[in-house]
Fold:
Amino acid sequence: MFIAFRGSKPVGGIAVGADAPGGFKFHFEPEDMTVVWDIRVSQEERRQGLASKLFSSGVNWARGEGYSRLKLEVTSANVPMCRFCAKNGCELAAVHRFGYETSKASDEAMLIWYYDLG
Structure:
């Protein structure tokens, strides 16, 4: 996890997960892949490049740990995050129309984005 501060106040963070029990990979994904669990930036700090800096920290950490790919799962309703992924070099690799059918987000599609660390 990486946290950004403005003075002593936390204003953003990224959580990158690896080797989670029970897995977070589809059967066709590489073993040496890690996942961005979450990226958050406070409202007043948005649109200033902080999320991209946090993402770079996650990318650098994952590369340093020897991972080949970073995965991000985004709901189709989160258009700003989809734009963020595309702007930061991620590739939309899969759309799972019924990925959330058992949740409150059942009308949204699951979008899987990858970032190649190679």
